[in-house]
Specification:
Two copies of one chain form a homodimer. With 119 residues, chain A is mainly alpha-helical. In chain A, 66% of the residues lie in helices and 12% in strands. Chain A has two domains: 1-79, Winged helix-like DNA-binding domain superfamily/Winged helix DNA-binding domain (Arc Repressor Mutant, subunit A), CATH 1.10.10; 80-119. At the A-B interface, α1, α2 and α5 of A face α1, α2 and α5 of B. The structure holds a DNA duplex (30 and 30 nucleotides).
Chain lengths: 119, 119
DNA sequence: AAATTTTATTATTATATGGTAATATAGTTG
DNA sequence: CAACTATATTACCATATAATAATAAAATTT
């Protein structure tokens, strides 16, 4: 029997948080340490309201922590684990590209053969 | 400087494919081997058109392979890697729950202390 | 306290997407 | 070829969500 939705749903939700480019950009900004919202806005080039909303989603998901400091609010990675995930996916995508390029090379070699001894 | 969107976008897209409960259900169905669409429909309880659409998305993402066989079409996991990802996330979520329950226990112990020696 | 800065929220719009019914397509069997 | 089965596609609706502008709220400075 298949895994019940109750088990899979939280996993899907976790992936969903990571499935938006803007949120990944925000997270990457925090890779080098805690940053204020203003700094995040500057680094990503995203709009203020937009960043604020994404940070709320990331905080609710438990991926970042929030610490107000004076007028500013600093956000920090709470689960460095997410970078492991991103790297795994990135590596997998790279391997795909490598395999594709290898196949292309094979194809070219075969075409060479055909040109040398046609028919 | 942060990673450019051109690098992060494919990663976000990869996560996006895995961020839907129905698609995870379909993938889990294939964990034990290739299955026809009819079998997938039966195991998941999802609608026919729905399953067909999700399978298309999974195939385009390169996560499953498609092999017609007579009237049926069999789909198979093309990247077992996805189950590693799911398991990593699942483990992480489990650790979270464990940590929460531990905190709860600590809180209860503290309340006991307070009850024994009030003030 | 007024002005300023920083962050959060609300309202709105545009777009994307999941689900379903209906239809189309393709292969199989009588 | 007609009937049937399996899968794909199309059209449609409902919902979710990303982005932005406008506004609010909170802390700081003058």
């Amino acid at each position: 029997m298949a895994l019940p939705p109750t088990v899979l749903a939280p996993i899907a939700d976790y992936f969903k948080v990571l499935s938006e480019l803007s949120r990944l950009q925000v997270l990457c900004t925090l890779k080098t340490g805690a940053k204020s919202v203003t700094e995040i806005i500057a680094e990503t080039g995203l709009g203020q309201a937009n960043v604020s909303k994404h940070l709320k989603i990331l905080a609710q998901a438990g991926l970042v922590s929030r610490t107000p400091q004076g007028v500013s609010v600093y956000y920090e990675i709470a689960e460095p684990f997410i970078f492991d995930l991103c790297e795994l996916v990135s590596d997998r995508l790279a391997k795909r590209l490598a395999a594709q390029s290898e196949q292309l090379k094979q194809l070219e070699a075969w075409q060479q053969t055909k040109a040398v001894s046609p028919q």
